[in-house]
Design goal:
By secondary structure, the protein is of the alpha/beta class. 31% of the residues lie in helices and 29% in strands. The chain has two helices and five strands. It has helices at 38-58, 81-92; strands at 6-14, 18-25, 31-35, 72-76, 97-100. It has a five-stranded mixed β-sheet with strand order 3-2-1-4-5, covered by helices on one side. Strand 4 (72-76), helix 2 (81-92) and strand 5 form a beta-alpha-beta unit. The longest helix is centred in the middle third of the chain and has 21 residues, at 38-58. It starts with 5 loop residues before the first strand and ends in a 7-residue tail after the last strand.
Length: 107
């Protein structure tokens, strides 16, 4: 199944769980997932999107259509250069667009 939803990805850190990444799809109310790595968070949110759509379809509920022609991932917050380069390389192989809301420049 093609995912053309906007995914926001935010890096979180706390004393109990360390660093992890939270992914959300605002178009799909309540669709949220996380992972210890960016790759894991994206995989988990894609699974959550699929499950959301399946449940809505099963009950005959409205499924908000994606407003994009392709999947877009937006990074929220501060990321290291290595994190940005890693996610950019991962997404390029999938032909997914990476939008950045922070000001870190790739060199």
């Amino acid at each position: 199944m093609t995912n053309n939803y906007l995914i926001t990805l935010k890096k979180w850190s706390d004393e109990m769980d360390g660093t992890y990444f939270v992914a959300r799809v605002l178009e799909l109310d309540g669709s949220m997932s996380d992972g210890k790595t960016i790759k894991e968070a994206l995989s988990n949110i894609r699974e959550a999107i699929q499950e959301y759509r399946e449940v809505k379809q099963e009950f005959g509920d409205f499924i908000p259509p994606p407003v994009n022609s392709r999947e877009i991932v937006k990074l929220l917050g501060e990321y290291t250069q290595d994190e940005i380069k890693g996610v950019t390389m991962q997404l390029k192989s999938s032909e997914i667009f990476l939008g950045r809301l922070n000001e870190i420049e790739l060199s």
